[in-house]
Specification:
Blueprint: H1 15-20, H2 34-51, E1 58-62, H3 72-86, E2 90-93, H4 99-110, E3 114-119, E4 133-137, H5 140-149, E5 153-156, H6 161-175, E6 184-187, H7 189-204, H8 211-214, E7 217-220, H9 223-244
Parallel strand pairs: 1-2, 1-5, 2-3, 3-4, 5-6, 6-7
Keywords: Cytokinin biosynthesis, Hydrolase
Pfam family, one: Lysine_decarbox
Family: Belongs to the LOG family.
Length: 246
């Protein structure tokens, strides 16, 4: 008879898990403590706003934490971040390894702020050594707010579910007019062409998106081209806003 395997130790619940599954088995009823939880969320938002209050020109860069340092997309993310930094943009990432590290590294090489928005996970993720402005969040949605609020653009490199989540959330917010239409660039045509074709051949063909929606995405490979797209759009939007308010 094969002996039973001991159960895998369960990682401690994160605050997000408690918040989103507070009625599930193993969790107490938080009804009495909800005001405290709301206050904690409020404090975390205020913490992020205060830390990033003077960030006026920044680009959020997303991609896989699993990208090795010798991968071509690591090199591309590093170069894109440097090109953006040379144009005066601070760089915001999730602060972890892989593509995030590459982008933070490029920011350091350009001499701009290298911001890392780290997140509490069941298995701790350390901040990469190229982050110069480290912030730590316990709730995903608060962290997402910071990525959006302080960004002039998104650059999205190959990644997993988290990367796709950030991509489609940004597209949804732009499409529905919740945020200003800023550039969303997919870096790496070989990786992203399949998704771009699927959106065209399936979503557009089925009438689930419009032709104008396809213009929300740009696929590019050249770091200077990516930086120029973002810089040009940012300058135009700044001039338009200033004209409208004077």
């Amino acid at each position: 008879m094969v002996p039973a395997q001991p159960p895998t130790p369960r990682a401690p619940a994160t605050l997000d898990e408690e918040l989103l599954h507070c009625l599930g088995p193993g969790f107490p009823d938080f009804a009495d403590s909800d005001p405290m939880r709301v206050a904690r969320i409020r404090d975390e938002i205020a913490y992020g706003f205060a830390a990033l209050a003077d960030v006026a020109h920044a680009v959020s860069i997303f991609g896989s934490a699993r990208t090795p340092t010798d991968d071509r997309y690591y090199a591309l993310a590093r170069e894109v971040a440097k090109c953006l930094g040379d144009r005066g943009f601070d760089i915001i990432t999730g602060g972890g390894p892989g593509t995030m590290e590459a982008a933070n590294r490029g920011a350091c090489e350009a001499g701009v702020r290298s911001i890392g928005l780290n997140i509490e996970l069941p298995h701790e993720q350390s901040v990469n050594p190229f982050v110069t402005v480290p912030l730590r969040f316990r709730h995903f949605f608060v962290r997402k707010l910071m990525f959006i609020r302080y960004a002039s653009a998104f650059v999205v490199f190959p990644g997993g579910f988290g990367t796709l989540d950030e991509l489609f959330e940004a597209l949804t917010l732009i499409q529905t007019g919740k945020i200003l239409h800023f550039p969303v660039v997919l870096a790496g045509s070989q990786h992203w062409s399949g998704l771009a074709n699927w959106i065209h051949d399936q979503l557009l063909a089925s009438g689930m998106v419009s032709a104008e929606d396809l213009e929300l995405l740009t696929v590019a490979d050249d770091p200077d081209v990516i930086a120029d797209i973002i810089d040009r759009t940012h300058r135009h939007q700044t001039e338009t806003y200033q004209s409208a308010t004077t």
